[in-house]
Amino acid sequence: MLRKSVETRDWLGTVEPRNVRAVMKRVVEDITAIDVQVGQLFEEGVRRAQSSDSSRRAFSVYSSSRAPGRYAPSYTPSAPMDTHLLSNIQKLFSERIDIFSPVEFNKVSVLTGIIKISLKTLLECVRLRTLGRFGLQQVQVDGHYLQLYLWRFAADERVVQGLLDEVAASAAHRCLDPVPMEHSVVELICERG
């Protein structure tokens, strides 16, 4: 479902995002249904303690080391820095997410596995597309929507956030006109959706 939604969309000629795409709402609905079904078969399992702002964490097209002013105070978008190099350096120091890790026989582990495979699928599909400005902004909106709802099903919310950050960074790399949407606008669209 995620693969087809990315492959069939015209990401270069899309209009400015006004809503979360229906497929993202369906993903959340399906994960919620799976949560109920798996909960009938397995015990809960162990979750890592969530941060107090899990559902409000900013979803950005810049990974943490690429955020202006954070680790590279002299970084400006017009500076002749290689963002691919910065992204690769970030990957060296970030915790590796094992997508196909063993799944334990509990609800949290099963759902975490499903979420990791789903988000990795989304990431790989986005890497194969070329996006326009509004295509990038739609990925931002969709990613923020997924962040708002999927973190509560995973064993560790950082896994969800890490994969969504990779999706956003990949979309920004593949975008011809990378102008991210204001975070307040993204939040407003997701709250309406």
Automatic annotation (TrEMBL):
User: Where in the cell?
Assistant: Golgi apparatus, trans-Golgi network; Recycling endosome
Q: Name one GO biological process term.
A: endocytic recycling
Q: Where are the transmembrane segments?
A: none
Q: Name one GO cellular component term.
A: GARP complex
Q: Which InterPro entries match?
A: Vps51
Q: Which UniProt keywords apply?
A: Endosome, Golgi apparatus, Lipid transport, Protein transport, Transport
Q: How does it assemble?
A: Component of the Golgi-associated retrograde protein (GARP) complex. Component of the endosome-associated retrograde protein (EARP) complex.
Q: What is the role of the protein in this entry?
A: Involved in retrograde transport from early and late endosomes to the late Golgi. The GARP complex is required for the maintenance of protein retrieval from endosomes to the TGN, acid hydrolase sorting, lysosome function, endosomal cholesterol traffic and autophagy. Acts as component of the EARP complex that is involved in endocytic recycling.
Family (UniProt): Belongs to the VPS51 family.
Q: PANTHER family from the xrefs?
A: VACUOLAR PROTEIN SORTING-ASSOCIATED PROTEIN 51 HOMOLOG (PTHR15954)
- Under what name is this protein listed? Vacuolar protein sorting-associated protein 51 homolog
Identify the species of origin.
Answer: Patagioenas fasciata monilis
